[in-house]
Structures are given as C-alpha cells and as structure tokens.
Amino acid sequence: MKMSTRGRYALIIMINLAKNEEGYLSIKEISEKENISIKYLEKIISLLSKAGLVCVGHGKNGGYKLVKKPNEYKIGEILRVTEGPMEPAPCINDSNCDKKDTCEVYSFWNGLYENINSYVDDKTLADFL
Amino acid sequence: MKMSTRGRYALIIMINLAKNEEGYLSIKEISEKENISIKYLEKIISLLSKAGLVCVGHGKNGGYKLVKKPNEYKIGEILRVTEGPMEPAPCINDSNCDKKDTCEVYSFWNGLYENINSYVDDKTLADFL
DNA sequence: TGTAATTCCTACCAATTTGGTAGTATAATA
DNA sequence: TATTATACTACCAAATTGGTAGGAATTACA
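The joint structure predicted for all components is written out below.
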C-alpha cells in the first residue's frame, strides 16, 4: 500500500507548474529545485503530457504549463495517470465476478477503494498553493 | 496503491480460522477451500504465527486457530503483519524531516495515511462472519 | 513404537515493477 | 541557423511479488 515515486513526483511537478501559472516552466528548473534527475522527471511528465494534463512549449523558453486552473485539477486525476486506478484488490473491477453483492471481502476492499478515491478526488492542486 | 496477495490471503486465512473457532484448521483445508497453493499459504501463515495472531497445533490433527475472539482482531492489525505500515509516502514516519508542520505535501499524504488506517482499524474479523 | 499428518525452516526462482540512465531525434524560436 | 527545449526509444540494476522444493521437527493415534 504505497504510492510509487512516479505518483509522488507527478504531484510535485504539478504543484510547481501551478505556482508558475504565467509562463512555461522547464524540466530543468523543476529538477534543480526539487533535486530529482532531469531524465526521470522527463519520463514522468511525458505521461502527464500524453494524458493532456499539461501543455508543451517547445524550443527556447519552452517547457510545460497547466491547461486548466489549479482548482480544476483533482489530485486523484493526477495520481491515476501515473499509478493507474488505485484498486487495493483486483476484484474491484473484475467483471467476471458475479458474487459482489454477497461477498464480504469484496465489500471490504471496495469500501477502502472508495475511501481512498474520495480522499484524493476531494482535494485539488489549489490546496497546495 | 494496491494490496499484495500476501495481505489479501492473510485476511482470507483469518476469516477461515474465525469461522472455525472450535478447533484447529490445517493449511491443507484452507488451501483446498480457497484454491491457493499450500506452500504459499504456509509462508503467509507463518508471518501471522510469528506475530502472535494465531496459535499452532503441531503434528497430526494440528493446524491453526485464533488466539482472540474475532471481534478483537482489527483488520489493520492483520494487514500490517504482511504489508508493514501502510504509508503512502516515505516521509510519513521520517524523523529526519523537520518541516512536517508546514509541508503541504506531507499533510496531504499523512491525511491519506490516516484515512486508510482508520478504515482498516475500524473493521474487525467479526464483520466477515 | 511406528507411521501418517502436520507445521517449521531454509533455500531457491521467475516475472514484474520500480527507479532510473543514455543517446538521438524532433520541434520551435530568438 | 544555432540554440534550447521536449520526444522517443532502448536499456539496465535492484527490489518486490508470487511463488516452489525439500527436508526436519513434532504430535496423534493405531
């Protein structure tokens, strides 16, 4: 039950972009500020970019910036890009299981799932400014 | 953010023992009922045994049984034996970090941590009977 | 007292995930 | 057109996950 560095770094990246709403922020700047390798950040931010959470400026003075306002980003939205759906047990979205309505174990894991997701979806990037 | 099979199987084992409060239940019986390999179950139950959550009957007609009543086992107690502390981020119990009281990121992860733990500590084995 | 049933312990192993690094291509713009 | 960025592809080591194998120790019971 841990979040990988991908998810944690993705959040850090997004907070940095949120604090720099005016212009583009380059990977290099984030890397230096947060002490995370450029190459690894590059890999993580490309996930955010492909998911359409950030937009790209190429060339000189380029970098990344948010496409929405900070309060429009649920943290869950960011984490799911790098972590996938945060399901504690594989049965959560198993359409082959037809006993969900009576299974005590399913309802336990599903409750945890809903708990986690409502926590992360209840907070936005704006909460970090 | 997933629970490994160790944690999930540990819960299944404990539910089986709870349903068999009278006597000893062998790994073989659990294995056959739940379709999980004997050898893997053996490994997981030895963690529960070392942690003192179950007691052992050796030799013929032996097996395992609970040492407490089902309602005295918090699920969190069981999961932490196989999963360790369920900390989403390593900073949660990092005594070297002295910025916790002002760090927004820490307070976010810590909130998630408390959320998860209060969920799993709020339920007991008796809820599965 | 012997044997079957059971746990205990140590070691091993393959697949996947995690946390990166390296090098080159491509794109934009000053 | 040179420079500064991102984009893409490939690779890699370490840790974790999810097991398996084999034998030793313990106990019940015939």
